Amino acid sequence: MKTKQSAWQHKFRSLLCVSLLAVSSCSAPPEQAKSVTGEAADLAVLQQQLQDLQARAEQVKDANAIKKLQRAYGYYIEKGLWDEVVALFADDATLELARDGVYSGKDRIRDYFYTLGQGKQGLHEGQLNEQLQVMPVVTLGLDGKTAKARWRNILLVGELGKHAELGEGPFENEYVKDNGIWKLSKVKWQQAFLVSYAGGWAKNEDFNKGIWVSGRLPPDAPPTEDHGWWPETWLLPFHFPNPVATYVPPATTDASAKLGDKP
Amino acid sequence: MKPLPQLKIMRKIGRGALLASCMSALVLAADMPMPLQQLAQQVAQLQAEVVNLEAENEIENLQGIFGFYFDKNEWQQAADLFTDDATLEWGGSGVYAGKARILAYLKSLGAKGPQEGLLNEQMQLQPIVSVAADGQSAKARWHLFSQEAVHGINHFWGTGVYENEYRFENGVWKLSKLKLYSTMKTPYQDGWGVTALPRSKASTTLPPDQPPTTDYKNYPSVFVAPFHYSNPAIAEPLHAQPAAAANLTDMAAVTEALASLEKRIGLLQDADAVERLHTIYGYYLAHNKWDELTGIFTSDGTIEIALRGVYKGRESVRRNLNLYGVQDELKGTLHNHMQYQPVIHIAPDGQSALMRSRAFSLMGNYGGTGRFMGGTYENLFVKRDGVWQLHLDHQLNTYFATYDVGWKDLQWIAAPGISQTNPPDAPPSMQFEMYPRPFLPPYHYKNPVTGK
């Protein structure tokens, strides 16, 4: 995708160069055009090249910033540092974890996490809440101010002497750049499975059916999609198109070609 | 001055187009190009930013490379990644100061090289790399997730958080401080609901140079490893500081600097694209999206997994995927194949890339058997028509372990090997061994510090 974009940018740059050459040629007397305006035109071209490169470097920085943001979310959330977590969200962000439904706005998101933490920040003695943020697929919006990303969250959670669960699930999140700083605008995570460590996913159904908080703190809206819980399996749709191309088997190609012959 | 390609294009298009452009030109004329000096300053700023972006990638590679060496008891190789004055502190080990002492500590962990009956998967995940404004040092937080076993004796899950430091020395990034805050360790057969092991103690046979620098306990206690960064949504992003722009005094120098930046930014975008493509591979694989997965291969690309042999070309790749299940059908089946810890090297021409990464899979059926799989990818990506594609997908499995057994008593089995009903186009390109037998998957790279 990026490479396509840069090819496009290249064409765009060439077009701009033409206009910029036009500037100098139109406004300068013909005999001086070659030296003076030639340098101005060269400068203009360099400036355009610089701006293109700044924009491309900005894309790399944006993707890095979004990855850091999500990873920071993970490091805070696994320790129950709710104030730090909430600070990562934009004011009008939404949060939808597992099957709890949608919580809208920063205040409601704060309520959600504090309810999850029984009214307190931080883990309690004996609690484990490891949540590993892995496998980012970041896609930047064309406006330079929005982005989407898919992630996986690996969970090792529980309480010593009481219970232990192992789980995993995908995020499809959205991000917004606010005054040069990236924030979470939408967190949507699905609990593909979270099962008792004893026996694992072959022997256990999901341990809480994806319900964490909504029994105590009703959401602002129901889940945007609800597929049940493990051992149900489903696909959270990918926000990204195939970065190369979907394969079309030859048989299918033949069939459609034949169909094409006889409309 | 050598004219830029764009200028050549302009001159070719020539004056015919000029008249038509004059109207818009008059509007644009107010927007004069910035003076050379100002341009040079911005170029210098961009250079500094690119240096720091390159540093982030190199540091991620460095830590990933460290992890892969550590896995296989490659102690000398691992120690060579440190600065001479570096320190290492692992859990409650205390501090080992200086490269020689770090090597001694590492050697105390076991005989060098891959060992029969030893599993030591130390996954380096979730990096937050912060490069100093001057581009000469950096800090990074990482998550450690480990699976360790000594065959017939024990096996463990472990987690922890690193807060590490790095220094740019003689043109290479090195580890200057490695500090692991261990979080949790539990025997596989118990799990963290039953047993929580304390953090490691300082060795008595090879005492550290200093006692542990931070007083904390493992889970079930709660400890937050200090963050080297402030909240990224509150803090202003750090801006790279340019070195003096003195060398960018004329048009030729600026032109040359921009040409170099064009190339380097291209390589940064390439690295992003390759990592993204590899991750997408994992998501397609996990959901039996066979046509989507096949589509990211080149027309003559190959897939080679678990000694099943080499399947070449998209039709064969697609055929190979039938070995792992039916397209889109996953009812009650977990087929979670994860990829991480990528070590990516883009060729200088930006047309190909080699990547090592880790595979970790959770598989099996509800009501049936659960399984873990660990492995290593050594893949080749190529850019065709400007689009990155997967050209050679090679996975070397480390183990297949059923959930009920884990790693301690895992009996050696051969990798699945060649299918008689759906055979490959060619036999495996190389043989490998799985745990508990020792094996070192070949690296596509040399040690980034020593070149060995």
Keywords:
heterodimer, A: 263 residues, alpha+beta, Nuclear Transport Factor 2, Chain: A, 7-stranded mixed β-sheet, 6 helices, 41% helix, B: 452 residues, 2 domains, 6-stranded mixed β-sheet, 8 helices, 27% helix, globular
Short description:
The complex is a heterodimer of chains A (263) and B (452). Chain A is α+β, with helices and mostly antiparallel strands.
Task: Please describe the topology of this protein.
The complex is a heterodimer of chains A (263) and B (452).
Chain A: H1 2-27, H2 30-77, H3 82-87, E1 89-97, E2 103-104, H4 106-116, E3 127-140, E4 146-159, E5 163-178, E6 181-189, E7 193-196, H5 200-203, H6 250-261
Parallel strand pairs in A: 1-6
Antiparallel strand pairs in A: 1-2, 3-4, 4-5, 5-6, 5-7
Chain B: H1 5-13, H2 18-29, H3 36-71, H4 75-79, E1 82-90, E2 95-97, H5 99-107, E3 118-131, E4 137-150, E5 154-169, E6 172-187, H6 251-286, H7 290-295, E7 297-305, E8 311-312, H8 314-321, E9 333-346, E10 352-365, E11 370-384, E12 387-402
Parallel strand pairs in B: 1-6, 7-12
Antiparallel strand pairs in B: 1-2, 3-4, 4-5, 5-6, 7-8, 9-10, 10-11, 11-12
Helix pairs in contact in B: 3-6
